[in-house]
């Protein structure tokens, strides 16, 4: 079967900084796929190149066998995107936004209205449908963004951090919608830092580190006998206890004035409170 998404040697440089260093991504159709990696690994840059938002410096990206950069119309008809830092038409209401998106996609007005109403209901946005998007909360923006990305029934849906700022109830709604969507044979690819979430939702995982794919395949293979979080830390070289190095000044607030080292008053030797020997308890 053709992969829903495939890239070969995808490359992007910003000045001296190589953001994506030859990525070979493969996501089978019908997958619920997670793209994970530490901050700055190149996930957003990769997704931007695959969705036609950013021109690669090298390599190829294909959606269902269509080249993103040579056959952009065919690709854009097949994909839905919920990008990072989502920009929406703020002065439209949620309903107007969906109808506008649907009409831009060439969907007949009656169909757009029907789909918009259904999506608003599923996303629990019916009561806010006529409110301006500028007045939506973070979670509501994610939901209307997802509704807009789903309206034309794409075969591949790209989501950059879709659950960020979304409350547990709304996250549950989004999860259900996405599960239904992949169960029908469509593909979801989402980036996230939340390993528990990826482990719970995804059946396919691609792990990126320093601009490259360091592991990719079915979740159970990538994870092995470990949790995905442990596998991730092994793969990306997260030093166990790395957060304990340095920062000796951090914490120990008691008996200290601002700017003073912990546990010390001016003129006192380090490590002992005035008038207190090592075995001495508090004065009674
Ligand atoms: N527009 C830009 N100009 C210069 N450097 C950039 C630009 N966009 C990204 N980078 C650099 O490219 C590298 C990859 O960034 P990218 O945003 O793709 O990472 P990411 O994996 O999505 O990170 P995060 O998890 O923090 O969102 C980083 O080193 C980043 O500083």
Automatic annotation (TrEMBL):
Major localization class: membrane
PROSITE patterns reported for this sequence: ABC_TRANSPORTER_2
Pfam families: ABC_tran
Compositionally biased residues, Low complexity: 255-284
Protein keywords: Antibiotic resistance, ATP-binding, Nucleotide-binding, Transport
Gene3D superfamilies xref list: P-loop containing nucleotide triphosphate hydrolases
UniProt cross-references to InterPro entries, sorted A to Z: AAA+_ATPase (IPR003593), ABC_transporter-like_ATP-bd (IPR003439), ABC_transporter_ATP-binding (IPR050763), P-loop_NTPase (IPR027417)
Key word Cell membrane present: no
Single annotated GO MF: ATP binding
Domain of life (superkingdom): Bacteria
Region (Disordered): 244-284
Stretches assigned to the ABC transporter domain: 5-235
Bilayer topology term: Peripheral membrane protein
Protein's cellular compartments: Cell membrane
Protein name as catalogued: ABC transporter ATP-binding protein
């Amino acid at each position: 079967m053709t992969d829903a998404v495939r890239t070969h040697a995808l490359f992007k440089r910003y000045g001296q900084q190589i953001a994506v260093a030859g990525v070979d991504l493969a996501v089978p159709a019908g997958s619920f796929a997670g793209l994970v990696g530490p901050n700055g690994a190149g996930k957003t840059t990769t997704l931007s190149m695959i969705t036609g938002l950013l021109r690669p410096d090298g390599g190829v990206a294909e959606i269902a066998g269509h080249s993103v950069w040579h056959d952009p119309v065919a690709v854009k008809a097949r994909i839905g995107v919920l990008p990072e830092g989502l920009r929406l038409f703020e002065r439209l209401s949620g309903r107007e936004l969906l109808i506008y998106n649907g009409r831009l996609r060439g969907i007949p007005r009656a169909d757009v209205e029907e789909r918009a109403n259904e999506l608003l209901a599923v996303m629990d946005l019916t009561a806010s449908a006529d409110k301006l998007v500028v007045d939506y909360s973070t979670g509501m923006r994610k939901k209307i963004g997802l509704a807009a990305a789903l309206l034309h029934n794409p075969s591949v849906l790209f989501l950059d951090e879709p659950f960020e700022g979304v409350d547990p109830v709304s996250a549950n709604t989004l999860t259900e919608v996405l599960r239904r969507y992949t169960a029908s044979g469509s593909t979801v690819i989402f980036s996230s830092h939340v390993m528990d979430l990826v482990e719970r939702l995804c059946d396919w995982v691609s792990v990126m580190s320093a601009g490259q794919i360091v592991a990719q395949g079915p979740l159970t293979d990538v994870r092995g006998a470990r949790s995905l979080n442990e596998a991730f830390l092994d793969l990306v070289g997260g030093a166990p206890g790395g957060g304990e190095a340095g920062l000796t000044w951090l914490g120990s607030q008691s008996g200290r004035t601002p700017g003073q080292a912990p546990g010390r008053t001016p003129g006192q030797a380090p490590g002992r409170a005035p008038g207190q020997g090592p075995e001495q308890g508090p004065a009674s």
